[in-house]
Amino acid sequence: MRHVGALIFPKFELLDLFGPLQMLGMLPEEFRLSLVSAHGRLVSSNQGPTAQADRAIGEDGDYDILLIPGGMGTRTEVGNARLIAWLGETTGHCEIVASVCTGAALLARAGMLDGRRATTNKFAFDWVVSQGPNVHWQRRARWVEDGKYFTSSGVSAGIDMSLALIARLHGRSVARDVASWSEYRWNEDPDDDPFAL
Amino acid sequence: MRHVGALIFPKFELLDLFGPLQMLGMLPEEFRLSLVSAHGRLVSSNQGPTAQADRAIGEDGDYDILLIPGGMGTRTEVGNARLIAWLGETTGHCEIVASVCTGAALLARAGMLDGRRATTNKFAFDWVVSQGPNVHWQRRARWVEDGKYFTSSGVSAGIDMSLALIARLHGRSVARDVASWSEYRWNEDPDDDPFAL
Lengths: 197, 197
Known about the structure:
Two copies of one chain form a homodimer. By secondary structure, chain A is α/β, with parallel strands linked by helices.
Protein backbone atom coordinates (compact mmCIF):
# COMPACT_ATOMS: atom_id res chain seq x y z
CA MET A 1 0.00 0.00 0.00
CA ARG A 2 1.51 3.32 -1.11
CA HIS A 3 0.49 6.67 0.35
CA VAL A 4 -0.27 9.32 -2.28
CA GLY A 5 -0.05 12.97 -1.21
CA ALA A 6 -1.92 15.18 -3.67
CA LEU A 7 -1.21 18.88 -3.31
CA ILE A 8 -4.06 21.39 -3.39
CA PHE A 9 -3.69 25.18 -3.43
CA PRO A 10 -6.09 28.03 -4.28
CA LYS A 11 -7.07 27.88 -7.96
CA PHE A 12 -5.80 24.39 -8.64
CA GLU A 13 -7.21 22.86 -11.84
CA LEU A 14 -9.98 20.33 -11.08
CA LEU A 15 -9.19 17.63 -13.61
CA ASP A 16 -5.41 17.88 -13.11
CA LEU A 17 -6.03 16.63 -9.60
CA PHE A 18 -9.07 14.40 -9.79
CA GLY A 19 -8.31 12.66 -13.09
CA PRO A 20 -5.17 10.95 -11.71
CA LEU A 21 -6.79 10.43 -8.28
CA GLN A 22 -9.70 8.63 -9.95
CA MET A 23 -7.30 6.22 -11.66
CA LEU A 24 -5.16 5.60 -8.56
CA GLY A 25 -8.31 5.40 -6.43
CA MET A 26 -9.60 2.49 -8.47
CA LEU A 27 -6.93 0.38 -6.77
CA PRO A 28 -7.81 1.04 -3.12
CA GLU A 29 -5.70 -1.90 -1.95
CA GLU A 30 -2.65 -0.34 -3.58
CA PHE A 31 -3.02 3.41 -3.07
CA ARG A 32 -4.20 5.49 -0.14
CA LEU A 33 -5.02 9.08 -1.13
CA SER A 34 -4.52 12.24 0.97
CA LEU A 35 -5.07 15.85 -0.09
CA VAL A 36 -2.31 18.10 1.28
CA SER A 37 -2.45 21.86 1.60
CA ALA A 38 -0.34 24.82 2.74
CA HIS A 39 -3.47 26.96 2.88
CA GLY A 40 -5.68 25.41 5.54
CA ARG A 41 -8.49 22.94 5.30
CA LEU A 42 -10.74 24.24 2.55
CA VAL A 43 -9.20 25.07 -0.80
CA SER A 44 -11.16 26.27 -3.83
CA SER A 45 -10.28 25.15 -7.35
CA ASN A 46 -9.86 27.36 -10.39
CA GLN A 47 -13.34 26.26 -11.49
CA GLY A 48 -14.95 27.05 -8.14
CA PRO A 49 -15.63 23.73 -6.36
CA THR A 50 -13.87 23.41 -3.00
CA ALA A 51 -11.95 20.42 -1.66
CA GLN A 52 -10.99 19.63 1.91
CA ALA A 53 -7.35 18.99 2.74
CA ASP A 54 -6.68 15.90 4.83
CA ARG A 55 -3.31 17.23 5.98
CA ALA A 56 -1.13 20.34 6.09
CA ILE A 57 2.29 20.47 4.48
CA GLY A 58 3.97 20.80 7.88
CA GLU A 59 2.52 17.51 9.13
CA ASP A 60 4.45 14.32 8.62
CA GLY A 61 2.80 12.63 5.67
CA ASP A 62 5.34 9.94 4.84
CA TYR A 63 4.27 10.04 1.21
CA ASP A 64 5.45 7.44 -1.27
CA ILE A 65 4.02 9.34 -4.21
CA LEU A 66 3.50 13.08 -4.60
CA LEU A 67 0.99 14.44 -7.14
CA ILE A 68 1.12 18.12 -8.08
CA PRO A 69 -1.69 19.56 -10.19
CA GLY A 70 -1.48 22.77 -12.19
CA GLY A 71 -3.89 25.63 -12.58
CA MET A 72 -3.87 29.42 -12.41
CA GLY A 73 -2.86 29.17 -8.75
CA THR A 74 0.65 28.02 -9.70
CA ARG A 75 1.37 31.64 -10.76
CA THR A 76 1.08 32.58 -7.09
CA GLU A 77 2.55 29.42 -5.57
CA VAL A 78 5.90 29.70 -7.40
CA GLY A 79 6.44 32.63 -4.99
CA ASN A 80 5.39 30.65 -1.89
CA ALA A 81 8.83 30.01 -0.38
CA ARG A 82 7.48 27.74 2.36
CA LEU A 83 5.66 25.52 -0.14
CA ILE A 84 8.61 25.38 -2.54
CA ALA A 85 10.97 24.46 0.32
CA TRP A 86 8.57 21.72 1.44
CA LEU A 87 8.36 20.38 -2.12
CA GLY A 88 12.13 20.24 -2.39
CA GLU A 89 12.45 18.35 0.87
CA THR A 90 9.48 16.02 0.40
CA THR A 91 10.12 15.02 -3.20
CA GLY A 92 13.59 13.92 -2.12
CA HIS A 93 12.02 11.20 0.05
CA CYS A 94 9.37 10.05 -2.44
CA GLU A 95 9.50 6.98 -4.65
CA ILE A 96 7.59 8.80 -7.42
CA VAL A 97 6.78 12.47 -8.02
CA ALA A 98 4.19 13.38 -10.65
CA SER A 99 3.01 16.74 -11.94
CA VAL A 100 0.19 17.66 -14.30
CA CYS A 101 0.08 20.76 -16.48
CA THR A 102 1.67 23.83 -14.82
CA GLY A 103 2.28 21.80 -11.65
CA ALA A 104 5.71 21.25 -13.24
CA ALA A 105 6.47 24.94 -12.57
CA LEU A 106 6.43 24.24 -8.83
CA LEU A 107 8.80 21.29 -9.17
CA ALA A 108 11.05 23.33 -11.47
CA ARG A 109 11.10 26.22 -9.02
CA ALA A 110 12.17 23.80 -6.30
CA GLY A 111 15.05 22.76 -8.57
CA MET A 112 13.89 19.14 -8.68
CA LEU A 113 13.77 18.95 -12.46
CA ASP A 114 17.21 20.46 -13.13
CA GLY A 115 19.05 18.41 -15.72
CA ARG A 116 15.98 16.24 -16.33
CA ARG A 117 13.53 15.88 -19.23
CA ALA A 118 10.08 17.21 -18.40
CA THR A 119 6.94 18.64 -20.00
CA THR A 120 4.01 20.89 -19.12
CA ASN A 121 0.90 22.27 -20.74
CA LYS A 122 0.88 23.97 -24.13
CA PHE A 123 -0.78 27.24 -23.24
CA ALA A 124 1.63 28.26 -20.50
CA PHE A 125 4.74 26.56 -21.83
CA ASP A 126 7.03 29.58 -22.00
CA TRP A 127 6.08 30.73 -18.53
CA VAL A 128 6.83 27.30 -17.06
CA VAL A 129 10.16 27.19 -18.93
CA SER A 130 11.06 30.50 -17.28
CA GLN A 131 10.63 28.85 -13.86
CA GLY A 132 13.24 26.20 -14.65
CA PRO A 133 15.85 27.27 -17.21
CA ASN A 134 18.02 24.21 -16.47
CA VAL A 135 15.28 21.68 -17.28
CA HIS A 136 15.25 19.86 -20.64
CA TRP A 137 11.69 20.86 -21.54
CA GLN A 138 9.93 18.70 -24.13
CA ARG A 139 7.39 20.58 -26.26
CA ARG A 140 6.01 17.45 -27.91
CA ALA A 141 5.06 14.89 -25.26
CA ARG A 142 1.83 13.60 -23.78
CA TRP A 143 3.91 12.92 -20.70
CA VAL A 144 7.59 12.41 -19.82
CA GLU A 145 9.19 9.92 -17.43
CA ASP A 146 12.68 10.68 -16.18
CA GLY A 147 13.69 8.52 -13.27
CA LYS A 148 11.16 8.96 -10.50
CA TYR A 149 9.73 12.13 -12.06
CA PHE A 150 6.59 11.93 -14.21
CA THR A 151 5.45 15.23 -15.79
CA SER A 152 2.43 15.52 -18.07
CA SER A 153 1.17 18.12 -20.48
CA GLY A 154 -2.16 19.87 -19.94
CA VAL A 155 -5.14 18.79 -17.83
CA SER A 156 -6.41 15.55 -19.43
CA ALA A 157 -2.88 14.33 -20.17
CA GLY A 158 -2.55 13.72 -16.43
CA ILE A 159 -4.95 10.79 -16.75
CA ASP A 160 -2.72 9.12 -19.35
CA MET A 161 0.31 9.77 -17.16
CA SER A 162 -1.32 8.32 -14.05
CA LEU A 163 -2.03 5.11 -15.95
CA ALA A 164 1.65 4.98 -16.95
CA LEU A 165 2.52 5.38 -13.29
CA ILE A 166 0.24 2.45 -12.44
CA ALA A 167 1.84 0.48 -15.27
CA ARG A 168 5.32 1.07 -13.87
CA LEU A 169 4.33 -0.06 -10.37
CA HIS A 170 1.84 -2.83 -11.16
CA GLY A 171 2.27 -3.71 -14.84
CA ARG A 172 0.59 -2.65 -18.04
CA SER A 173 -2.21 -5.16 -17.72
CA VAL A 174 -3.38 -3.65 -14.41
CA ALA A 175 -3.23 -0.14 -15.92
CA ARG A 176 -5.34 -1.31 -18.87
CA ASP A 177 -7.86 -2.82 -16.46
CA VAL A 178 -8.14 0.50 -14.59
CA ALA A 179 -8.67 2.35 -17.89
CA SER A 180 -11.34 -0.14 -18.88
CA TRP A 181 -13.18 0.03 -15.54
CA SER A 182 -13.41 3.78 -15.95
CA GLU A 183 -14.31 3.46 -19.66
CA TYR A 184 -11.26 5.55 -20.53
CA ARG A 185 -9.37 5.27 -23.82
CA TRP A 186 -5.82 5.30 -22.57
CA ASN A 187 -3.29 6.92 -24.88
CA GLU A 188 -0.45 4.51 -24.04
CA ASP A 189 2.20 6.26 -26.14
CA PRO A 190 3.82 9.19 -24.30
CA ASP A 191 5.12 10.57 -27.63
CA ASP A 192 1.68 10.66 -29.29
CA ASP A 193 0.81 14.29 -28.59
CA PRO A 194 -1.87 15.70 -30.88
CA PHE A 195 -1.84 19.01 -29.03
CA ALA A 196 1.82 19.90 -29.65
CA LEU A 197 1.97 23.39 -31.18
CA MET B 1 -24.89 32.63 -17.72
CA ARG B 2 -26.37 29.27 -16.69
CA HIS B 3 -26.28 27.91 -13.15
CA VAL B 4 -25.06 24.31 -12.89
CA GLY B 5 -26.06 22.35 -9.80
CA ALA B 6 -23.81 19.31 -9.37
CA LEU B 7 -25.05 16.76 -6.86
CA ILE B 8 -22.64 15.23 -4.36
CA PHE B 9 -23.43 12.39 -1.95
CA PRO B 10 -21.27 10.05 0.14
CA LYS B 11 -19.20 7.78 -2.13
CA PHE B 12 -19.76 9.74 -5.33
CA GLU B 13 -17.24 8.89 -8.09
CA LEU B 14 -14.55 11.58 -8.40
CA LEU B 15 -14.18 11.74 -12.17
CA ASP B 16 -17.94 11.43 -12.83
CA LEU B 17 -18.28 14.78 -11.12
CA PHE B 18 -15.07 16.66 -11.80
CA GLY B 19 -14.57 15.62 -15.43
CA PRO B 20 -17.72 17.40 -16.62
CA LEU B 21 -17.20 20.28 -14.17
CA GLN B 22 -13.71 20.84 -15.61
CA MET B 23 -15.16 21.16 -19.12
CA LEU B 24 -18.05 23.43 -18.11
CA GLY B 25 -15.74 25.40 -15.84
CA MET B 26 -13.50 26.30 -18.77
CA LEU B 27 -16.29 28.66 -19.87
CA PRO B 28 -16.67 30.75 -16.70
CA GLU B 29 -18.66 33.42 -18.52
CA GLU B 30 -21.22 30.80 -19.53
CA PHE B 31 -21.50 28.45 -16.56
CA ARG B 32 -21.55 29.03 -12.81
CA LEU B 33 -20.91 25.86 -10.81
CA SER B 34 -22.43 24.91 -7.43
CA LEU B 35 -22.04 21.64 -5.55
CA VAL B 36 -25.35 20.55 -3.98
CA SER B 37 -25.78 18.04 -1.18
CA ALA B 38 -28.49 16.38 0.89
CA HIS B 39 -25.85 15.31 3.42
CA GLY B 40 -24.39 18.49 4.86
CA ARG B 41 -21.36 20.50 3.90
CA LEU B 42 -18.54 17.98 3.62
CA VAL B 43 -19.06 14.93 1.45
CA SER B 44 -16.42 12.26 0.81
CA SER B 45 -16.03 10.61 -2.57
CA ASN B 46 -15.76 6.90 -3.25
CA GLN B 47 -12.00 7.39 -3.67
CA GLY B 48 -11.62 9.27 -0.37
CA PRO B 49 -11.12 12.97 -1.21
CA THR B 50 -13.78 15.24 0.29
CA ALA B 51 -15.64 18.09 -1.42
CA GLN B 52 -17.53 20.95 0.17
CA ALA B 53 -21.16 21.52 -0.82
CA ASP B 54 -22.05 25.10 -1.71
CA ARG B 55 -25.74 24.46 -1.08
CA ALA B 56 -28.22 22.01 0.40
CA ILE B 57 -30.97 20.40 -1.66
CA GLY B 58 -33.64 22.23 0.32
CA GLU B 59 -32.25 25.66 -0.58
CA ASP B 60 -33.52 27.39 -3.67
CA GLY B 61 -30.82 26.88 -6.27
CA ASP B 62 -32.64 27.95 -9.43
CA TYR B 63 -30.50 25.56 -11.47
CA ASP B 64 -30.54 25.66 -15.25
CA ILE B 65 -28.51 22.46 -15.50
CA LEU B 66 -28.38 19.54 -13.09
CA LEU B 67 -25.39 17.15 -13.11
CA ILE B 68 -25.68 13.82 -11.31
CA PRO B 69 -22.56 11.70 -10.89
CA GLY B 70 -22.53 7.98 -10.16
CA GLY B 71 -20.50 5.93 -7.74
CA MET B 72 -21.05 3.29 -5.08
CA GLY B 73 -23.09 5.81 -3.12
CA THR B 74 -25.96 5.56 -5.60
CA ARG B 75 -26.76 2.14 -4.11
CA THR B 76 -27.74 3.93 -0.92
CA GLU B 77 -29.20 7.08 -2.47
CA VAL B 78 -31.83 5.24 -4.55
CA GLY B 79 -33.46 4.66 -1.15
CA ASN B 80 -33.19 8.31 -0.05
CA ALA B 81 -36.81 9.37 -0.52
CA ARG B 82 -36.09 13.03 0.20
CA LEU B 83 -33.33 13.20 -2.40
CA ILE B 84 -35.35 11.32 -5.02
CA ALA B 85 -38.35 13.62 -4.46
CA TRP B 86 -36.09 16.67 -4.80
CA LEU B 87 -34.61 15.28 -8.02
CA GLY B 88 -38.07 14.74 -9.48
CA GLU B 89 -39.15 18.26 -8.65
CA THR B 90 -35.92 20.02 -9.61
CA THR B 91 -35.29 18.23 -12.90
CA GLY B 92 -38.76 19.34 -13.99
CA HIS B 93 -37.61 22.98 -13.87
CA CYS B 94 -34.19 22.48 -15.49
CA GLU B 95 -33.25 23.20 -19.07
CA ILE B 96 -30.82 20.27 -19.13
CA VAL B 97 -30.33 17.27 -16.82
CA ALA B 98 -27.18 15.17 -17.18
CA SER B 99 -26.08 12.01 -15.42
CA VAL B 100 -22.81 10.10 -15.50
CA CYS B 101 -22.42 6.38 -14.86
CA THR B 102 -24.81 5.06 -12.18
CA GLY B 103 -26.13 8.59 -11.60
CA ALA B 104 -28.79 7.49 -14.10
CA ALA B 105 -30.17 5.16 -11.41
CA LEU B 106 -31.20 8.20 -9.34
CA LEU B 107 -32.97 9.82 -12.28
CA ALA B 108 -34.61 6.51 -13.16
CA ARG B 109 -35.79 6.03 -9.60
CA ALA B 110 -37.33 9.51 -9.72
CA GLY B 111 -39.23 8.38 -12.84
CA MET B 112 -37.65 11.10 -14.97
CA LEU B 113 -36.34 8.70 -17.62
CA ASP B 114 -39.56 6.72 -18.10
CA GLY B 115 -40.24 6.25 -21.82
CA ARG B 116 -36.90 7.80 -22.72
CA ARG B 117 -33.65 6.44 -24.14
CA ALA B 118 -30.82 6.44 -21.62
CA THR B 119 -27.54 4.70 -20.76
CA THR B 120 -25.32 4.03 -17.77
CA ASN B 121 -22.05 2.31 -16.95
CA LYS B 122 -21.20 -1.19 -18.09
CA PHE B 123 -20.31 -2.78 -14.78
CA ALA B 124 -23.58 -1.98 -13.00
CA PHE B 125 -25.89 -2.03 -16.00
CA ASP B 126 -28.36 -4.63 -14.79
CA TRP B 127 -28.68 -3.02 -11.39
CA VAL B 128 -29.42 0.38 -12.94
CA VAL B 129 -31.97 -1.20 -15.29
CA SER B 130 -33.73 -2.63 -12.25
CA GLN B 131 -34.18 0.92 -10.92
CA GLY B 132 -36.08 2.01 -14.04
CA PRO B 133 -37.88 -0.82 -15.85
CA ASN B 134 -39.77 1.65 -18.08
CA VAL B 135 -36.63 3.28 -19.47
CA HIS B 136 -35.33 2.35 -22.94
CA TRP B 137 -31.81 1.46 -21.78
CA GLN B 138 -29.09 1.51 -24.45
CA ARG B 139 -26.27 -0.97 -23.82
CA ARG B 140 -24.06 0.38 -26.60
CA ALA B 141 -23.67 4.15 -26.25
CA ARG B 142 -20.93 6.48 -25.11
CA TRP B 143 -23.76 8.79 -24.15
CA VAL B 144 -27.44 9.28 -25.03
CA GLU B 145 -29.36 12.52 -25.58
CA ASP B 146 -33.15 12.37 -25.33
CA GLY B 147 -34.71 15.80 -25.15
CA LYS B 148 -33.25 17.62 -22.19
CA TYR B 149 -31.81 14.44 -20.66
CA PHE B 150 -28.17 13.54 -21.27
CA THR B 151 -27.01 10.22 -19.78
CA SER B 152 -23.49 8.84 -20.18
CA SER B 153 -21.88 5.49 -19.66
CA GLY B 154 -19.13 4.99 -17.07
CA VAL B 155 -16.83 7.57 -15.48
CA SER B 156 -14.74 9.01 -18.34
CA ALA B 157 -17.69 8.97 -20.75
CA GLY B 158 -19.09 11.88 -18.76
CA ILE B 159 -16.35 14.11 -20.19
CA ASP B 160 -17.45 13.30 -23.75
CA MET B 161 -21.08 13.92 -22.77
CA SER B 162 -20.31 17.27 -21.15
CA LEU B 163 -18.64 18.43 -24.37
CA ALA B 164 -21.79 17.38 -26.27
CA LEU B 165 -23.80 19.45 -23.79
CA ILE B 166 -21.56 22.45 -24.49
CA ALA B 167 -21.93 21.79 -28.22
CA ARG B 168 -25.72 21.85 -27.96
CA LEU B 169 -25.76 25.15 -26.07
CA HIS B 170 -22.81 26.95 -27.69
CA GLY B 171 -21.97 25.08 -30.89
CA ARG B 172 -19.51 22.35 -31.81
CA SER B 173 -16.67 24.77 -32.41
CA VAL B 174 -16.76 26.02 -28.81
CA ALA B 175 -16.89 22.44 -27.51
CA ARG B 176 -13.83 21.57 -29.64
CA ASP B 177 -12.02 24.60 -28.23
CA VAL B 178 -12.74 23.47 -24.67
CA ALA B 179 -11.45 19.98 -25.49
CA SER B 180 -8.31 21.46 -27.00
CA TRP B 181 -7.63 23.80 -24.06
CA SER B 182 -7.77 20.81 -21.75
CA GLU B 183 -5.73 18.66 -24.18
CA TYR B 184 -8.59 16.18 -24.30
CA ARG B 185 -9.31 13.94 -27.30
CA TRP B 186 -13.06 14.31 -27.53
CA ASN B 187 -14.93 11.26 -28.77
CA GLU B 188 -17.58 13.24 -30.69
CA ASP B 189 -19.65 10.23 -31.77
CA PRO B 190 -22.09 9.10 -29.06
CA ASP B 191 -22.46 5.71 -30.76
CA ASP B 192 -18.73 4.96 -30.75
CA ASP B 193 -18.57 2.88 -27.59
CA PRO B 194 -15.50 0.65 -27.35
CA PHE B 195 -16.51 -0.54 -23.89
CA ALA B 196 -19.88 -2.06 -24.84
CA LEU B 197 -20.00 -5.64 -23.57
